[in-house]
Design a protein that fits this description.
The structure is a single chain. Helix content is 55%, strand content 13%. By secondary structure, the chain is of the alpha/beta class. It has one domain: 3-Layer(aba) Sandwich (Rossmann fold), CATH 3.40.50.300. Helix 2 packs antiparallel against helix 3 and helix 3 runs parallel beside helix 5. It is globular. The protein binds thymidine-5'-phosphate (TMP).
Length: 204
């Protein structure tokens, strides 16, 4: 395992992934450990431009266009990732699994095409570990209601997100060694400790 790993935080809306990535970055700041943090879509300057286009509530692209825009946004991040790969810890809020979970399992786009373009973009870059945050339907519905600044991908119904989550779980279960599933229905502080302890192991 690389001591400067790529660590990805995945999960559907309201699963708590952004909370946990923030906690990890605060921990690394406190320990004065160098890292970079990006999100997808977004992260670099050009990717943020594409993010605004995809997620703008007035956009109404078809599912294939969405796929190509998410991948275009990733393409603009790859140089940034390459620059720091194995030199600094890289934390990513959503990455390739989100494309498979949302565009394939959620929206039915062909999986082979997604895998092929991801491979084409990533080449030898490999994610070392993924925290998959999951939430049950009851908590999901409550959390979706509380969300304030809604974007275009926040407006789906709970059943869609649960379908996407099943896709995420499939990916995690097919490669268990490289994933930790975080049950965000449980105590948040315990989950924070669980994640920080795992991060310590990954960077030791
Ligand atoms: P977020 O940044 O608030 O998590 O929102 C980004 C949205 O984009 C979220 O609904 C998931 C979606 N998304 C995809 O559908 N495919 C992708 O490849 C990525 C990275 C995100």
């Amino acid at each position: 395992m690389s001591k400067k790993p790529i660590i990805v935080f995945e999960g559907i809306e309201g699963s708590g992934k952004s909370h946990h990535i923030t906690k990890v970055s605060k921990y690394l700041d406190k320990k004065k450990i160098e890292y970079i943090k990006i999100r997808e879509p977004g992260g670099s300057l050009n990717s943020e431009k594409i993010r605004r286009l995809i997620l703008n509530k007035k956009s109404n692209f078809n599912v294939q266009t969405d796929l190509l825009l998410y991948l275009a946004s990733r393409s603009e991040n790859i140089n940034l990732i390459k620059k720091f790969y194995k030199k600094k810890i890289i934390l990513i809020d959503r990455f390739t699994d989100s494309t498979i979970a949302y565009q394939h399992y959620g929206m039915g786009v062909n999986l082979k095409i997604i895998n092929m373009i991801n491979k084409f973009l990533l080449k030898s870059i490999k994610v070392n570990f993924t925290f998959l945050n999951v939430v049950d339907k009851k908590n999901l519905i409550q959390r979706l209601k509380k969300r304030k600044s809604l974007n275009r991908y926040d407006k789906f119904n709970a059943s869609f997100y649960i379908k996407v989550q099943r896709g995420f779980l499939k990916l995690a279960k097919s490669n268990e060694k490289f994933y930790k599933i975080i049950d965000s229905n449980l105590n948040i502080k315990k989950n924070e400790d669980l994640i920080i302890n795992q991060v310590k192991k990954l960077i030791k």
